Amino acid sequence: MRKRLRLSAYAICVRDGQVLLARWTDDQGRPEWTLPGGGTEYGEDPYDTVLREVEEETGYRVEVTGLLGVCSRLFTFRRRFGREAGRHGVGIVYEARVVGGELRFEVNGSTDMAQWHDLDAVSGLNRVRLVDQGLRLWRERPVTGRPGTEGGE
How far apart are CA 118 and CA 93, in angstroms? Predict the structure, then answer.
């Protein structure tokens, strides 16, 4: 089985009771909300990745205000000719605040929309697991930097 590691960096931007999310389309063509961010390029520091990706996907320039933690996920999928492949996704989650730019949608990228959502309404959105993990890191700020590791979970 072919195995791949993907390092990514994402931002939790919360202001006035709302969180900034970007919308992408999954492999089945369903739109899902995710945290703004994405893959780190070879030689790129994850800190620089999050600044670049947030601006690409939302139009905003952000300032990182903290490191919240790391989300890790292993999964297997089928490639051409039925071959299995494994992917290990490691996402570094930063807290950030908007310092410039204007909300806009990414053109010809991995996302097609960016929008502020009320924190109370996030649970009703079609979203990727990373959104819940990132918000949990933002709310709980676990010492381990891992969502769900505090309090005996």
Answer: 20
Evaluate if residue 37 carries a pLDDT over 80. yes
Mean pLDDT, rounded, of the chain: 92
CATH of the domain at 101: 3.90.79.10
pLDDT digits (tens, 9 = 90+) for 117-133: 999 999 999 999 999 99
User: The domain containing residue 78 runs over which residues?
Assistant: 2-140
Residue 138's alpha-carbon distances to 72, 74, 86, 141, in angstroms, are 16, 22, 29, 6
CB 42 within 8 Å of CB 98: no
Of 73, 96, 82, which Cα lies nearest the Cα of 14? 96
Query: Domain for residue 82, yes or no?
Result: yes
Lowest mean pLDDT among 5-9, 72-76, 79-83: 79-83
Q: What is the pTM of this model?
A: 0.89
Domain total of the chain: 1
Which residues lie closer than 8 Å to 12 by C-beta, 6 or more apart? 19, 35, 68, 93, 94, 95, 96, 134, 135, 137, 138
